[in-house]
Amino acid sequence: MKKLLISILLFLPSLSLAAGSCVVTPGEYPATGGPVQFVLTSDASGDVSADTCVTAWRFDAYGRRGRILSCSAIPSTTAAPTPLYDITIIKTETYGDIDISGAGMSDLPATGSDGAAYLLQIGSAFGQPDIRGKLAVIGDNMGNAKSTTIICEVEIEP
Length: 158
Known about the structure:
By secondary structure, this protein is mainly beta. The protein is about 15% helix and about 35% strand.
C-alpha cells in the first residue's frame, strides 16, 4: 500500500492541465464590430486552452449577433511558435461548441501570416459564420512559451 501511495504522489506533479495565457482585445462588447484580437502564449506543453482564451462578452449582447468576416494568424517575431502549429476557433453556442476554423488554420507556418483565406472561402460559399455566444481560440503544438496573434474581423448586426 505504501508503494502505491508513493507511486501516486510521484506521478501527481507530472499531471498538469494545459492553459497557457491569452489577452483578448477589446475587453468589452464591440458595439460596432471591427477586429477582435487574441494574443496567445503557450504553456510548457505548447498549448493554449479554450477556457483561457475566450471573449468575456457574448456577441448576442443587447439582442444582436456577430458575424466573422475573416481571421488571420500572425506569429510572434520574438517567440515564434514551432512550424506546423494549429489554431482552432470555436464559437460557443447554447447548443454546443462549434469549430468554425476547420482545417484552415492547421499546420501554420512559424513566419508570416496565414489563415484568412480559409474563412473567407467559407464566407463566400455558405455566408459568414454567425456568432451568438462567445468566441474562443485554442492553440496546439506551439512549443514552450511561444506566441501568436489571431485577429478576427467581425461585424455586429445593427
